[in-house]
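Late entry, evening session. Most of the bench is empty. Finally got around to the prediction I had been postponing all week. Sequence below, unchanged from the version circulated by S.P.
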Amino acid sequence: MNTGSDRGTNESAADESAADESAADESAADAAAQTPHVSKAPAFIKARKSLHLSWQVGVFVVGLAVIAAGVAMLVLPGPGWVAIFAGLAIWATEFAWAHLVLHWTKRKVTEAAQKALDPKVRRRNIILTTVGLVIAGALIGFYLWKYGLVLPWDLKDQ
């Protein structure tokens, strides 16, 4: 079973052509080709194939558990996305595909952060937030004017 974690510095032409699908991915593919993904398992584990496979299965199970907890935390209280990215980082220690996905995710998050810091985008977001708060305040004011403020403990028997 080839998981890609024991890749050497010599990559096939098919792998390189598959990695160069778009201009945006070329820089990531070049970086990946220069620094191949290598398993982070200790040397004595990598020396024995069956022990290394067991290590990879363990890393996969632990990463899957963390990601499953993160998915559960998307609807339950907790830092769901942080846990999902942590599980992906656990997988990236052993699997080349997870390493590439993690780098792609980091790049996209950085691009989104830079876009959010753009003055035009910030101004638009501030204007939209202000308009939303004014509308919500007007609706709350109308409700209070029409029905008044009645607290649950002040309700009279009806």
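Two things to note before I forget:
Residues 6 and 38 are 6 Å apart (CA to CA).
Helices lie at 13-19, 23-34, 43-46, 49-75, 80-92, 96-116, 119-147.
Will write this up properly tomorrow.
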